[in-house]
Write a structure and sequence with these properties.
The complex is a heterodimer of chains A (342) and B (282). Chain A has 342 residues and is mostly helical. Chain A is built from 14 helices and no strands. Chain B contains 14 helices and 2 strands, in the order ααααααααααααββαα. Classes of the chains: A mainly alpha (342), B mainly alpha (282). Chains A and B meet through helix 1, helix 2, helix 3, helix 5 and helix 6 of A and helix 1, helix 4, helix 5, helix 6 and helix 7 of B.
């Protein structure tokens, strides 16, 4: 830290000599730039670009390994899925190696398959229900705990538990608690005189169960992010509103909500994308058995690929899912750029 | 408890707080109950597990743990999980931090590149399952830990880059410039000045990534064989032809989850901060 004092030193010390700095554009000029703007991207670029232009490759070398891995694991699967989706690959010719090119036939079959639309419908229902319920509870909790730091410290460790617990293991534990005859959940519900639904039994219930478990597991994430957003809201508007006689609801409606909007946005988007990738809990609890209404697209793709070995069909589902995700991803980027939360 | 000073609103707010307190107490119980139930079930004898009404008090037995580690040899999946989680954590944190540093300090790839990285995080892992399965089997890596480490590395990278970029951008550039002026090369400045300052960030990121890899199930189920199975996959397999072996299964769940919870509680503050940074657990 004591080196800081030297930074206004007029001569850029030991640098590569192949890169002379023009008069008046050395460190001194940079210091001037830094004084008017905080050291964020533009300054960094200016400083490093001018002073170290002999090492222009440096940032690219730093980014290269990660980029290569990300490219390998996104381009290859995408091409693989695209290629598979255009061919006739099923359990019958899987090992023979002769996979005829059949154009868009796989997509056509998919488009006409009731199972695919059932899975799409289940996905939408699952994601919307899970995100909405979870958000409302998490937001409520965050609002209650916003002004009570003591209570907050007390509660946080409890909320950390679902957040960090292995989803597959969580599903096993819930499975134990929900087994039809012996389950502790229904025992407790019965003690309070409440109805005891067949959680893993008749058709709508398994979907309700997996939604509730997903809600349970992800409330903490939304809670912590929303709470962080709430605690950094400025006090002044609320004080002014209180002086003007605004009620709690008005303050919430006209101050909290608009001020918190970027955070709410980010929370909802991340959570939504995360809900779209759900697999473990449903797989462990119901196996996504088609009859139970819990076969969301992820489980549908898994069944096509690893149980039915309809690789062509699986490829088509995968391509459809990537397109869906990309659309939502683009929407996300637009929103975030507009909110300038990055 | 310093509320805003509005005297006439106190009563309804107090009512609200009362209701809220009950809600919160219920929420606390609901949050830990499944894990509590799993742990207690793992300590019950088989007969007690199948008793109705469910027992809250029961003689404690370690029989299930004996069966888990002696009969079912659960040490092996635990070791596999540890190897895979450690390998992918180290790999993704090193490579991801390098990229994050460059992204935080330079305009590599303009505005699009950071967002591409962010969009990567939305890539549904199931889409990778089939291609990666064939890739791994083609490379003869199907039942090795290496394939899993590589896949987790990829899945973790966007998260590491996104989070570390934020941490690096918090470190003032002037500190580095000072080091350069003193004759440090860029590498030296990075290693001697930036990395020590980024240590808390590196710790948070590593913990998140480690827990995410430890918890992963889908790709582990697809890419591992009997020898390389990770702990969550092995735990789910206690449901055999003769019904579910609840005791050992709950014991397995306990030894998988409790160490991670212990770590999470120890570094609670950092985890909450990591989440708040717009970072996100899977």
């Amino acid at each position: 830290m004591q080196r800081l004092g030297k930074r206004t030193s007029p001569h850029p010390a030991k640098r590569g000599n192949d890169d002379p700095v023009p008069e008046g554009e050395g460190i001194a000029a940079l210091v001037k730039v830094r004084e008017v703007s905080p050291p964020v991207l533009p300054t960094g670029r200016l400083a490093l670009g001018r002073v170290w232009s002999g090492e222009r490759l440096f940032p690219y070398l730093m980014v290269a390994p990660a980029t290569a891995i990300l490219l390998l694991f996104t381009l290859y699967p995408t091409l693989f899925n695209l290629n598979a989706s255009l061919r006739d690959i099923s359990v019958y010719n899987f090992t023979s190696g002769a996979h005829r090119f059949i154009g868009l036939r796989n997509y056509e079959v998919l488009w006409r398959s009731a199972e695919f639309w059932a899975a799409t419908g289940a996905t939408m229902l699952y994601v919307v229900a899970s995100v909405t319920i979870g958000f409302l509870v998490a937001f409520g909790l965050a609002l209650v705990l916003q002004h009570t730091p003591g209570l907050r410290t007390l509660v946080s460790p409890f909320l950390l538990v679902p957040l960090m617990a292995t989803p597959a293991v969580v599903a096993l534990a819930w499975n134990q608690m929900l087994v039809s005859e012996l389950g502790v959940v229904n025992y407790l519900l019965a003690q309070f005189g409440l109805p005891t639904p067949p959680w893993l039994g008749a058709t709508p219930w398994p979907l309700v169960t997996v939604v509730l478990i997903d809600v349970w597991q992800h409330i903490p994430f939304m809670f912590f992010v929303l709470l962080a957003g709430l605690t950094v809201l400025p006090d002044e508007p609320f004080e002014a509103a209180a002086i003007d006689g605004a009620g709690a609801w008005d303050a919430f409606r006209y101050l909290t909500l608009p001020l918190l909007q970027p955070v709410i946005m980010v929370t909802l988007i991340f959570r939504t994308m995360n809900a779209f990738t759900s697999f473990d809990v449903i797989y462990v609890l119901t196996g996504g058995a088609p009859g139970t209404g819990t076969e969301i697209l992820n489980l549908f793709l898994y069944r096509k690929a690893f149980k039915a070995f309809e690789i062509g069909q699986a490829g088509a589902v995968a391509v459809a899912m990537v397109i869906l995700t990309a659309l939502i991803g683009v929407a996300l980027i637009r929103l975030m750029q507009r909110e300038e939360t990055v | 408890m310093a509320l805003r000073p509005v005297a006439r609103r106190r009563t309804p707010r107090q009512k609200l707080l009362m209701a809220g307190t009950w809600l919160i107490a219920a929420a606390c119980v609901a949050n830990v109950f499944p894990i509590y139930w799993m742990v207690t079930t793992s300590l019950k004898s088989e007969a007690d597990i199948h008793t109705y009404p469910p027992l809250l008090l029961f003689p404690i037995t370690l029989e299930n743990y004996r069966e888990l580690f002696v009969t079912a040899r659960f040490f092996s999946p635990m070791r596999n999980s540890l190897i895979v989680a450690l390998g992918s954590t180290v790999g993704s944190v090193v490579l991801g931090s390098m990229a994050a540093y460059a992204l935080g300090r330079f305009k590599v790839g303009g505005k699009v590149f950071p967002f591409w990285i962010l969009a990567m995080r939305m890539f549904p892992p199931i889409v990778l399952a089939l291609p990666v399965f064939f890739l791994a089997s083609g490379a003869g890596l199907l039942n090795s830990q290496l394939a899993l480490i590589a896949v987790y590395l990829m899945l973790n990278l966007p998260f590491v880059i996104w989070l570390m970029r934020g941490f690096f951008m918090e470190i003032p550039l002037s500190l580095e410039e000072a080091a350069w002026i003193d004759g440090c090369s860029r590498w030296q400045a990075m290693i001697r000045v930036v990395l020590p300052l980024a240590r808390p960030g590196l710790a948070v990121t590593s913990i998140f990534v480690f827990i995410a890899s430890w918890n992963e199930f889908l790709l582990a189920a697809i890419l591992t064989g009997p020898e390389t199975r990770t702990a969550p996959v092995a735990a789910a397999q206690f449901s055999g032809e003769y019904g579910i072996l609840w005791g050992p299964m709950m014991a397995a769940g306990t030894v998988i989850v409790l160490p991670m919870l212990a770590v999470a509680l120890l570094v609670q503050r950092y985890i909450v901060r990591g989440l708040a940074l717009g970072a996100v657990k899977g």
